[in-house]
TrEMBL record:
Belongs to the ELP1/IKA1 family. GO terms for cellular component: cytosol; elongator holoenzyme complex; nucleus. Component of the elongator complex which is required for multiple tRNA modifications, including mcm5U (5-methoxycarbonylmethyl uridine), mcm5s2U (5-methoxycarbonylmethyl-2-thiouridine), and ncm5U (5-carbamoylmethyl uridine). The elongator complex catalyzes formation of carboxymethyluridine in the wobble base at position 34 in tRNAs. It comes from Terfezia boudieri ATCC MYA-4762. This is Elongator complex protein 1. SUPFAM superfamilies: Tricorn protease domain 2 (SSF69322).
Amino acid sequence: MRNLLLTQRVHLSVSSTEIPDLPLTATAWDAATDSLICTFGPSGVESVIEVKRLQKQGQISTITSFDVPCELPSLKCDLVLSLHFFADTNTICIVFAGGNIVVVEVDENFASRGVEIVGSVDEGITGASWSPDEEVLAITTSASTFLLMTRSFENIATTTFTETDLLASNHVSVGWGKKETQFQGKRAKAMRDPTVPEYVDEGILSASDDGKVTISWRGDGAYLAISGVQNVEDKRRRIIRVYSREGTLDSVSEPVDRLEGTLSWRPSGNLIAGIQMFPDTSRIDVVFFERNGLRHGEFTMSIPGGSFEGQNIYELAWNADSTVLAVVLKGRVQLWTMGNYHYYLKQEIIYDAEGSLNYPEDAPVVVWHPEKALQLALNLNDKVVVYSWIWSVHRGTTQPPNDHGMVAVIDGGKLKLTPLRWANVPPPIALYDIQLETTPIDVAVSYTDGLIAVLRSTGLDLVKWYPGKPRDAKKPKLIANATRFQALDSVRQIAFLSSNRLTVLVDAIACCMLLHYDIDFSSSTITKAGEEILPLGTTRIVPDALDATGEFYYVENHRIVTSANDPNTKLEFPTTCPWVEMARIDGQVNYFGLSENGKLYANSTLIAPNCTSFIVTNAHLIYTTTQHFVKFVHLQTGGKDFEIPTDDPTGDERCRSIERGAKLVHVMPSSFSLTLQMPRGNLETIYPRALVVAGIRRSIEAKDYKTAFLACRSQRVDLNILHDHAPEQFLQNVELFIDQVKKVEHVDLFLSQLREEDVSQTMYRETLPRADVPSTAKKSQPAQTDSKVNKICNAFLDVLLPSRLSTKLQNIVTAYVCKSPPDHDAALLLIAKLREGNTELVEKAVEHVCWLADANNLYNNALGLYNLELTLLVAQQSQKDPREYLPFLQSLEELEHNRRRFVIDDHLGRHVKALRSLVDMGDDTFEEAKTYIVKHALYQQALGLYKYNEDKQKKLMLLYAEYLDEQSRFREAGLAYESIQHLHPALLAYRRANLWQQALSLALLIPISNSELSSLSESLADHLIEAKDFSSAAQIYVDYRNDIPEATRLLCRGSHFAEAMRLVANSGKPELLQSVVDAGLVEAFSTTVELLADCKAQAHAQLGRLRELRAKKEEDPLAYFEGLPEGSGANIPDNISLAPTDASTSGGTFMTRYTGKTAGTAMTGATRRTSKNRKREERKRARGKKGTIYEEEYLVRSLARLVERLEIVKDEIGRLVEGMVRRGMRERATAVQEKMVEMGGILKGCVEEVFSDKNAVNLFFYGTGGGDGEGDDGEGGHGPVNVNGEKKIPVVKDFERLAIL
């Protein structure tokens, strides 16, 4: 769909100076300075050659001149076969047909430093060509030899052309196509094998063949092709030989009749182009060969408005990137491109054939630039014309409602028109073909897509056509030669400034001109309205494409100027941008430019460094990237900078993945579509979420819910956006929504897709905050506690009930069923209410509700309403067998009201309701109710139902207490027994629950014997001692066993020394202070000192090991995470890749063992480990074995537990210090206090050092599993937690010291 747009045409007049009238014989590009090296002469009159340097600005400088005598009698004068400039060494190499190879050295100013003949071939040279890498020179001689030489002109290989070369490809002919081998019977034509050609070429030499040799290299320089004439079995035949870079014959072409000598190997390497003549039919084909010599397709050339009679092909030349094939004919140069396996004639350069070919016929006519793929030098007799093109899509407007997607494609004398919005016709086919007189130079489409202007070298054509749907649109109407031009080959571009004004850019001698034309639609004529002078360097004109205001801007180099009337520079891009578009944003003009190296600019700001194509609409800048994304940049930013989306097609609607190499063709915002062209040439129309959702949002804001709904339905957009984008507006306009959508099934579709998720914040998050959204459309900030689904369904029910009950019953039922949870009962009750009216309507409603929900569940719901007739109606719509439900329903019909309710509720598993029905039946069913309560454990509900009957309530409480006792809920069982004065069972329950206060109080109330009381108290005290509740155990020994010494010992074991001393003093036994209290203090002192020493040793050891691990991780992360042995880092192979790959399920990256996730699980967030493997990992983590990846986690959590442990014993140690001070053990108290303060300081330093590392914090909270919820600590716990059950970083509090110590 792309055309060649001419952006520059430079006429450079050239002539010889030392000897006048020497012909221009050769031209070569100097890619470094973008200048031309030209040779003049020799001629039949003078054997002198002049070498000149020609710059694009027009400056000409002579480099050198020298005599070139020709000693070959077959030549009137010597010819230049090859001219090449080496930019790295500033040397010029000229190869002459007479056999000399001359090297001219130049300095930095291109002044000659010497001319040297570096080699000579006595027999003469017939062809010469340098390889693309400038390292090998290929030469063919008149003696039918082939030479390969290095850049220093040392011989690589010498080969002689012989007839035996034809055996290289082993092309076998079995006679197919010869008349004597064909069956000539009556029905021969019908019986002929279609796979066999009617005629097989024999290699007949063309009558116009001049016998010359052509050499062409492949783009990588590995192979070259040589086209020459060879005698084969007393016949002359043109052969293409393919040689390797080393001079080895690789293949020979198959025979082709009338094959010409012109040859060009496509730089990409897949095709070798040649010419085949058909003089009988005045037809010329460009034929292609593969490297193996076999034919590979062809295309037939055409001359729009002319014929090939008397024509000859002078030259074939591929450009640098293999996209354009230049074919030089008499008087014209044709540029052919290929797309979707079709060759298009994109441009024709018409020149004066009589005055341009007076120089020797071997001189090249066109020379492509070696680096700038679309820059070409055309050598004429008295001048060199340099042409520069860019690829451009001739498209229509993107402004709705005229965004028909109009695209015009040039194909020689045909203009192919396709409105992509209505007919996505794959190229090379088009919806309409317009036949023109000659090949167009440029095409412009008006702002309404109703008028197309075609610029040709001799005139301007108009095409009137307003596209639309194919069945409604009329055929285009051509108005040929609406105006004619005088100067041949001077017009360059055309553009619409408004709907009725055209402007044409013309190249004049010293400037550029704009010719303005007004269009008269009534008479379909155009008249000249004026002209303007523009600078000579104007490359293109850029009209105001979106507003059609009549303003235009022209691009001069990399400047954008507003117009000729105001030549002040509007903007200057950082670099030259051949592709320029403009858009008005908030009333200001903004320019977007794309450079040849893929940099996209918005004004002077770089938007993307890797852009391949772009297009501008009134809302978006759309561009494609080399990473194969299409991106959308919002233009209406409210004065803010453009926000560029990231390369994340999953999380941002402004970015989407596309096929590799795809480029933009057109965008149609009205249909939310974007058309891309693949590298092969085929088209693909996509509907990007950015365009679709933007259009849906606009429709919602305009309250056009029907358009928004249909767009969501056709583009598979979640229908929740209709509400979520503007929730308050939607709820206020539910009736409008129903009236616009109308169809019952469409309303049902919307209701059935409702869910609680706010899709405007998740799936379709707005990427452009808009200030113009109505206040009713803005979402409220506070979180909504009510169900969104229920709110919408209720809003629909408020509108539909009761006024639209008869017409929208199906929608009403759907609204009930789609609630969360579904309100099946309300829907069934509504149907039951309608049974008295329209029976047909009820049946449809029942059928619909059974289709929406599970019929079995609906059957249960209907049964739960105790409406047997409705239940029967639902059952008949289900797939149930009547034998399953009819007997049951008949049995229910015979039961009493409450008994029927009980049976139904029990059948449905609604045991509480069934129990209530039993209670309603009266006292006669109490025993049945007790059985039912025990069966279904309905004790609490039963107590509530019998709360006014004390006797029955006590019986139920006894059952409940027995149930709690069976469930080992002894505390609650004891309370239940005691509440109904069952004291013995209550005492047993309290004893089992270790509730010593309740148990002993009941033991005294019953009462029990002293021996039983002693045994009970002893048992309870033992349990308390096991639970380390020494204070409570001591209380039992004092109150119930009168054992003061044992009570004192227990208090000392619990570090309650103050209470122990009070008890001794209160009992009047001071001797216990020394025998019991002092001994307890000494024992506690020893235990505490040992504990603090262990804690100190643990802290030092684990902190040191943690420092060592972190140092290793910093030095060599690979060895650390892989667990390699020390000293083995030097043996790690350096030829492996650590890049992650989804192809591996076990290896992953070197971080896999550390994170616990491979590439697959990291993407899905799910673990594929089995339960056995998980338990094994947990055991490894719990052990924290040295050298494993779990060691650091184990050490971090172990230090955290150490802090927690010290915090627990801090109060006990404080009570110990006070007790030792009171008993005169000052030195021991001081020692314990100092050790405790020292340990607190050590742990403070540990916490600061350990948890200053972010990785350690992650390990503490999430574990080595990387936050997957399995990071338990080494002993099955989860580390310190706060009151909410959440982890917290440990904090070391200061130990409260005694001032007297």
